[in-house]
Design the sequence.
C-alpha cells in the first residue's frame, strides 16, 4: 500500500515540492532566462555573458543619410544686421586707375590785383650843407604814385610793404666834398661819397631794401670839416632820387 501511495503523491506534487530536493527555477523554452540561475546550462550562461559572441565578427549597421534626408526647406526670414566689427588693418595699395575725362571749364576768376608803388623825384637847384645833418628836399616830381613821396620833406612813406629798388644820382661840386646817406627811418642804409676835386663828376648809388608799411626812405647830407655840396642848375636835372616796388611782401 505504501508504494502506490508514494507514486500517486509523486505525480500530484511538483518537482520543487519534494522535500530534500533543491528547487529549480522555471526555464523558458524559447530563450534562456535572465539572469541565468544556478541550475542553468553552461551554454546559456556563456551566451548571456557574451563568451560565445566574442569570437564572432561584429556587424555594424549602416544608414544611408541620403535616403533619410528630406527636401530643402524655404529660406527663413532675414535676421537683424549685426554690430559693426573693428576696423581692420589697411590693405595693400591698389593699381592706378585709368585717367579720367577732362572736366568742364570753370567760371572765370576775379581779376588779379597787383600792388604797385613807385616814385622818381629831382632837384634842379644845387645845395650846400648848413648843418651837421641835413635832409635833402626835392623840387621836381617825375613819378609819384598815390602821392607817397613828400617833396618838401624829401621822404617816401611806404604804404605797400615789400622789396624796393632805390637809386640816388648827384653831380659833385668843384673842390667840394660830396657826402650823402640813403636813410631808412633813422638808420643810414647806404652812403654816396666823392672827394674834393677840381673836376665835377656824376656819382650814383643804388640798393634794394625790404620795407614795411610806415617805413620812411630819404636822403641826408652829412657835413664834416670840409664844405659839403651837390651841384645843380635850373636848366638841367642833375640830382634824382627814385624807387619802385620789386615784389610785394604778400608774394614773398
Sequence:
Amino acid at each position: 500500500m505504501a508504494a502506490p501511495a508514494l507514486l500517486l503523491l509523486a505525480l500530484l506534487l511538483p518537482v520543487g515540492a519534494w522535500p530534500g530536493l533543491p528547487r529549480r527555477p522555471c526555464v523558458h523554452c524559447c530563450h534562456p532566462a535572465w539572469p541565468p540561475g544556478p541550475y542553468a546550462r553552461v551554454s546559456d550562461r556563456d551566451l548571456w555573458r557574451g563568451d560565445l559572441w566574442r569570437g564572432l565578427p561584429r556587424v555594424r549597421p549602416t544608414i544611408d543619410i541620403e535616403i533619410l534626408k528630406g527636401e530643402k526647406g524655404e529660406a527663413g526670414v532675414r535676421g537683424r544686421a549685426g554690430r559693426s566689427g573693428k576696423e581692420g588693418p589697411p590693405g595693400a595699395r591698389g593699381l592706378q586707375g585709368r585717367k579720367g575725362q577732362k572736366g568742364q571749364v570753370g567760371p572765370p576768376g576775379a581779376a588779379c590785383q597787383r600792388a604797385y608803388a613807385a616814385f622818381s623825384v629831382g632837384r634842379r637847384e644845387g645845395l650846400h650843407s648848413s648843418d651837421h645833418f641835413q635832409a635833402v628836399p626835392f623840387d621836381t616830381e617825375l613819378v609819384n604814385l598815390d602821392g607817397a613821396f613828400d617833396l618838401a620833406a624829401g621822404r617816401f612813406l611806404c604804404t605797400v610793404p615789400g622789396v624796393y629798388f632805390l637809386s640816388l644820382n648827384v653831380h659833385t661840386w668843384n673842390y667840394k666834398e660830396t657826402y650823402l646817406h640813403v636813410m631808412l627811418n633813422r638808420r643810414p642804409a647806404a652812403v654816396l661819397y666823392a672827394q674834393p676835386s677840381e673836376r665835377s663828376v656824376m656819382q650814383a648809388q643804388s640798393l634794394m631794401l625790404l620795407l614795411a608799411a610806415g617805413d620812411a626812405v630819404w636822403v641826408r647830407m652829412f657835413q664834416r670839416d670840409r664844405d659839403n655840396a651837390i651841384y645843380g642848375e635850373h636848366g638841367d636835372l642833375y640830382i634824382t632820387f627814385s624807387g619802385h616796388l620789386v615784389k610785394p611782401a604778400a608774394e614773398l
